[in-house]
């Protein structure tokens, strides 16, 4: 009797140990999976944040490039406006024309919208984490970027239209050359006079974007060094052994009528129809 009781007790003890072991194993497996998933999500969020802030930094850098270009334009505008147009018309046409083209030249502002889309699509994730400061700051950055892009580009288009209208109707405007017709126009002179202020405005926008982006880095816990290294890696050229295709390799001579052999059947049909028409 005692022997049977011991066997019975031992059996349930083994079952209990198996259940405990299986439970521990499941808990450990599930816990490990959850930890790995959380770590993977955190890495994804960090990469997403780096892409967002990298785009903002790229936008500011792009403005810097336009500022450098516009500084020369500003210098040329200031000099050209200071000299009487009658005196400028004594210069060789090609030289003066080149100076005027450089003076009134502009570049459009633009930025890659991919990172903005990634940020927008993951907005709920950021909200769930309580990163409201990051959401607000990044949202403000993208709104400002869109406003700068629209405001600046619309102004550039308006300036170009003013100049194109004069070039397209030279008889309606006084001046020896087309470029001096521009110089004699009050609207163009106003455009040239505003070059300096617009350049100052661009510099402010670039620095403001960087200031806000530094706030983003502080909130999300990413250093400037980390962002700089990410951008260097992001912009690194992908080098492979194969040479990139050249557009010239794909342009061939236009097709000649006598070489369109596959369409002979239609040519014969057309000749027959024409011959029939001639007989009528």
Oligomer: single chain
Which structural category fits the helices and strands? Answer: mainly alpha
Radius of gyration: 35 Å
Tell me the fraction of residues in β-strands, as a range: under 5%
Helix tally equals 11
The major pleated sheet works out as: none
Total beta strand runs: 0
User: Between the first and last Cα atoms, what is the distance in angstroms?
Assistant: 124 Å
- The overall average pLDDT, rounded, is 81
Stretches where pLDDT falls below 50 for ≥5 residues?
30-40
Percent helix, as a range, is over 70%
- SSE order: HHHHHHHHHHH
- Shape type: flat
Structural descriptors:
77% helix; 280 residues; mainly alpha; flat
Write the layout of secondary structure elements.
Elements: H1 2-82, H2 85-88, H3 93-104, H4 114-121, H5 123-128, H6 132-168, H7 178-183, H8 186-193, H9 195-220, H10 224-234, H11 264-279
Helix pairs in contact: 1-3, 1-4, 1-6, 1-9, 1-10, 6-9
């Amino acid at each position: 009797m005692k022997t049977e009781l011991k066997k019975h007790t031992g059996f349930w003890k083994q079952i209990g140990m198996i259940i405990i072991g299986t439970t521990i194993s499941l808990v450990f497996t599930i816990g490990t999976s959850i930890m790995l998933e959380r770590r993977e999500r955190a890495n994804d969020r960090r990469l997403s944040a780096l892409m967002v802030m990298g785009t903002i930094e790229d936008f500011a850098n792009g403005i810097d490039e336009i500022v450098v270009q516009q500084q020369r334009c500003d210098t040329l505008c200031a000099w050209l406006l200071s000299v009487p147009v009658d005196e400028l018309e004594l210069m060789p046409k090609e030289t003066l024309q080149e100076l005027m083209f450089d003076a009134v030249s502009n570049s459009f502002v633009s930025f890659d919208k991919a990172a903005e889309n990634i940020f927008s699509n993951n907005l709920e994730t950021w909200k769930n984490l309580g990163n409201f400061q990051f959401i607000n700051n990044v949202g403000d950055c993208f709104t400002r970027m869109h406003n700068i892009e629209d405001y600046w580009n619309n102004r550039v288009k308006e300036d170009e239209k003013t100049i194109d209208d004069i070039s397209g109707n030279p008889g309606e405007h006084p001046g020896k050359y087309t470029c001096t017709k521009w110089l004699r126009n009050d609207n163009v002179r106003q455009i040239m006079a505003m070059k300096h202020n617009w350049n100052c405005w661009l510099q402010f926008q670039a620095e403001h974007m960087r200031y806000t982006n530094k706030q983003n880095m502080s909130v999300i816990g990413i250093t400037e060094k980390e962002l700089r290294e990410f951008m260097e890696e992001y912009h690194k050229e992908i080098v492979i052994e194969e040479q990139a295709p050249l557009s010239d390799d794909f342009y061939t001579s236009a097709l000649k009528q006598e070489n369109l052999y596959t369409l002979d059947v239609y040519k014969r049909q057309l000749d027959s129809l024409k011959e029939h028409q001639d007989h009528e």
